[in-house]
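Summary of Year 1 activities. Much of the first year was spent building the evaluation harness for sequence design. The harness presents a backbone, in tokenized form, and records the residue chosen at every position. We chose the following record to illustrate the format because it has been used consistently in internal testing since the harness was completed.
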């Protein structure tokens, strides 16, 4: 059963670690993200060390029989401590979280040190990758070893269940609430593994065996661990999905602003930021869609500033009358009129025809209230929708919609 379930759990842990690894450099100052990545890494290692082929390989390479036992169990103890670190930073102020995190990590290191000392005293004689616990269940030193491990494991899972439910009730994010509840469910299922291992210790004291419960123990351990990993992954996947949606929206906005930017650039090419003269590091930064979109908005804003002295009130009034007759009103009317003003202003500038000072006006959408960059982009997109996709010839076609 162990060699059937462990590879599946290993795949889940590896996928979770790879998913988190991408964000670790960007969040290197976030201890919770680092601890969560460590949870997936340590979980994967614990499963890897326990698979029979790897168990035998380590015995042969390291020259110590059954060394996979303390390695795998040490990883489990460490990941239990890291899980508590994640919850501590998610649910406590930074000063309190740092103190509690140090405590959890210190306790985890102490348990691992105790396991290594007790294992060193075992002197196991033969590789037992399948039935190690059953084989040594009657050994007093192994009973002490298993008691230490199961106690730490059980207390850690109980603390995890309690903390997850409490934090889930306090969280305002659906993905965090769902994820923490799945973690709590998985941790509850793993208690079946703890119960069998406690039974192994008690049965060994009475020269009995719980061999018939081994499959149940490994099933509870692996299924519970998989659910726990999936639960930890839910908020991360949700965040990354939102980031992907945001980047898609940025790409669409960037392309949607192309007609508006092209209208200005055809008459005022100097609005384009000369990134070719920037150093290579800056050029790489400018390739980011967020920077490109911001740059396009700034360049359009510069184009509006250049065209503003050529806005004739006659054009605005006739455009308003025309679009009102078509049924437009409110912000959409202002956007359509602004589009007409831009085209007329560009044509007037190209012809060198400035309106009389008493005929000057502002853009129809100049009074639109924008509370941030997203609102400004939405306002510019509304104007761009009323422009033809090829409003004018561009002096540098290769940069038209780059």
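For this record, the design step produced the sequence shown next.
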């Amino acid at each position: 059963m162990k060699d059937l379930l462990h590879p599946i759990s290993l795949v889940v842990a590896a996928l979770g670690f790879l998913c988190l690894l991408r964000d670790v450099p960007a969040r290197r100052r976030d201890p919770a993200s680092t601890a969560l990545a460590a949870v997936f890494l340590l979980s994967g290692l614990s499963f890897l060390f326990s698979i029979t082929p790897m168990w035998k390989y380590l015995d042969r390479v390291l020259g110590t029989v059954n060394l996979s036992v303390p390695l795998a169990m040490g990883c489990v103890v460490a990941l239990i401590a890291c899980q508590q670190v994640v919850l501590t930073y998610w649910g406590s102020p930074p000063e309190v979280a740092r103190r509690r995190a140090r405590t959890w990590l210190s306790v985890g290191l102490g348990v691992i040190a105790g396991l290594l000392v007790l294992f060193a005293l075992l002197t196991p004689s033969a590789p037992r990758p399948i039935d190690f616990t059953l084989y040594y269940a009657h050994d007093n030193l192994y009973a002490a070893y298993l008691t230490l491990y199961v106690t730490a494991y059980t207390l850690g899972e109980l603390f995890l269940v309690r903390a997850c439910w409490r934090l889930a009730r306090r969280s305002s994010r659906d993905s965090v609430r769902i994820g923490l509840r799945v973690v709590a469910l998985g941790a509850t299922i793993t208690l079946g593994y703890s119960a069998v291992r406690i039974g192994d210790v008690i049965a060994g004291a009475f020269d009995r065996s719980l061999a018939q419960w081994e499959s149940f123990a490994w099933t509870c351990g692996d299924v519970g661990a998989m659910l726990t990993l999936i639960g930890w992954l839910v908020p991360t996947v949700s965040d990354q999905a939102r980031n992907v949606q945001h980047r898609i929206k940025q790409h669409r906005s960037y392309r949607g602003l192309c007609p508006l930017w092209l209208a200005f650039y055809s008459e005022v090419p100097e609005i384009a930021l000369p990134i070719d003269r920037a150093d290579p590091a800056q050029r790489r930064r400018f390739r980011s869609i967020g920077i490109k979109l911001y740059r396009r908005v700034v360049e359009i804003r510069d184009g509006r500033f250049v065209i503003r002295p050529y806005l004739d009130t006659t054009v605005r009034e006739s455009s308003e009358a025309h679009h009102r007759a078509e049924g437009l009103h409110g912000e959409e009317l202002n956007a359509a009129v602004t589009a007409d003003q831009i085209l007329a202003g560009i044509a007037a500038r190209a012809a060198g025809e400035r309106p009389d000072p008493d005929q000057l006006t502002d853009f129809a959408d100049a009074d639109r209230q924008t509370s941030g960059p997203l609102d400004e982009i939405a306002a510019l997109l509304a104007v761009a929708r009323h422009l033809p996709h090829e409003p004018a010839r561009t002096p540098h076609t290769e940069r038209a919609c780059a």
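Residues 255 and 401 are 7 Å apart (CA to CA). Quantitative recovery figures across the full test set are reported in Table 2.
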